[in-house]
């Protein structure tokens, strides 16, 4: 986004929260602290997943190069659409800081919201089912054009009349305070009860069972991965911030880390998609660069300085040889690459079944 345009935004102090739980969660943290201690831990470790995952990483700087807020929003929307169309599990948005720090977590003033913070906010907003957005996302200037974007229409973006084995919901209130149950808005005509005490404002995945009457029978809260693992449903992506490319690789949220790293560049090897043999992986990461490519990201990163991209990534690929334009933009490369990788990834996933 051009700086001139960003300065027009009104200030609305707010902490950017990187979980999918919404930023007002942070404001309520203190208040709920004592009660939290009394509540039993209900959430399964969301990142302890047994099925293979695919993550993408891209720099937030691509937003800084756009000419207006509308164009920046549209670009963020395209990234969200690409991630959803290709069933991506995790989107990592990184900065080009030379040393690792998590400065963006303190990015309290949206007047100066960086391209990275803006992109993270919009990616999270779009991934959240429409009926939960009001509860999880306070009004924010960066969100003022999101209404123009085409919806993701992901399987967890269910309409009021649709029934599915799982639904995303937001916790409302303990019910009653003495009992260990909580009311949850799952976007149906009636709220449901879950059999856990959870503070209000948390996003949860609820197993809906088979009883469509929505009586007071308590429902189970499950891991966000469960719909994928049990029902093979695509259930959206998580969004993560990384201060630089080395942190993208090192701060992997999954047990054991990423075990195969793909870098993309016009300077990479040329291999036909049908001939690309990926090894069996648990957690695959595909990285994209910004205006000056991944080479610059590596060069600017103190932890990787002087390294060749071929040392950093398991493989470094040119997915669009003989390009007619001098440059393929990151958002274009995203669509081209994810289509290119679809078959090789499927071959690995099908062979490990
Ligand atoms: C504007 S380009 C950067 C140009 C740079 N010379 C490069 O390294 O490809 C932005 C990003 O799009 C992706 N990209 C562009 N052309 C590509 C190609 N032919 N093959 C694979 N990825 C490409 C890369 O991730 C690159 O970092």
- CATH overall fold name of the largest domain: Alpha/beta knot
**Beta-strand residue percentage:** 15-25%
Compressed to H and E, one letter per element, the order equals HHEHHEHHEEEEEHEHEEHHEH
Give the overall form.
Answer: globular
Corresponding CATH architecture of the largest domain: 3-Layer(aba) Sandwich
- Provide the low-confidence segments as ranges: 2-44
CATH class category label of the largest domain: Alpha Beta
- Secondary structure category: alpha/beta
The tally of strands reads 11
User: In order across it, which strands form the biggest sheet?
Assistant: 8-2-1-10-9-11
Give the radius of gyration. Answer: 21 Å
At the fourth level of CATH, the homologous superfamily of the largest domain is: SPOUT methyltransferase, trefoil knot domain
- List bound small molecules: S-adenosylmethionine
Provide the helix percentage.
25-40%
């Amino acid at each position: 986004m051009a700086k001139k345009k960003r300065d027009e935004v009104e200030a609305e102090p707010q902490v950017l929260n990187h979980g999918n739980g919404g930023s007002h969660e942070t404001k309520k943290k203190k208040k709920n602290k004592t009660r939290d201690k009394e509540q039993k831990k209900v959430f399964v470790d969301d990142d302890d997943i047994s099925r293979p995952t695919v993550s993408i990483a891209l720099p937030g700087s691509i937003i800084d190069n756009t000419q207006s807020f509308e164009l920046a929003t549209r670009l963020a929307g395209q990234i969200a659409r690409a991630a959803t169309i290709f069933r991506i599990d995790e989107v990592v948005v990184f900065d080009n800081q030379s040393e690792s720090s998590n400065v963006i977590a303190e990015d309290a003033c949206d007047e100066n919201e960086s391209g990275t913070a803006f992109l993270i906010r919009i990616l999270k907003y779009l991934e959240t089912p429409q009926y939960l957005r009001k509860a999880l996302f306070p009004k924010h200037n960066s969100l003022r054009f999101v209404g123009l974007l085409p919806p993701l229409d992901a399987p967890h973006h269910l309409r009021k009349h649709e029934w599915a084995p799982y639904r995303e919901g937001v916790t409302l209130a303990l019910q009653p305070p003495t009992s260990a149950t909580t009311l949850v808005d799952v976007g149906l005509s009636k709220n449901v009860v879950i059999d856990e005490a959870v503070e209000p404002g948390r996003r949860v995945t609820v197993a809906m069972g088979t009883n469509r009457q929505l009586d007071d029978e308590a429902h189970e809260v499950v891991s966000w991965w469960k719909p994928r693992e049990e029902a093979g449903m695509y259930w959206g992506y998580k969004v993560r911030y990384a201060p630089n490319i080395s942190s993208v690789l090192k701060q992997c949220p999954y047990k054991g880390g990423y075990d195969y790293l793909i870098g993309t560049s016009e300077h990479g090897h040329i291999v036909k998609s049908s001939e690309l043999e990926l090894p069996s992986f648990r957690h695959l990461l595909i990285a994209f660069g910004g205006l000056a490519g991944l080479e610059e990201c590596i060069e600017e990163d103190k932890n990787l300085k002087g390294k060749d991209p071929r040392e950093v990534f398991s493989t470094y690929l040119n997915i669009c040889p003989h390009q007619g334009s001098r440059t393929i933009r990151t958002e274009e490369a995203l669509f081209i690459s994810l289509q290119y990788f679809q078959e090789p990834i499927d071959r690995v996933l099908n062979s490990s079944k």
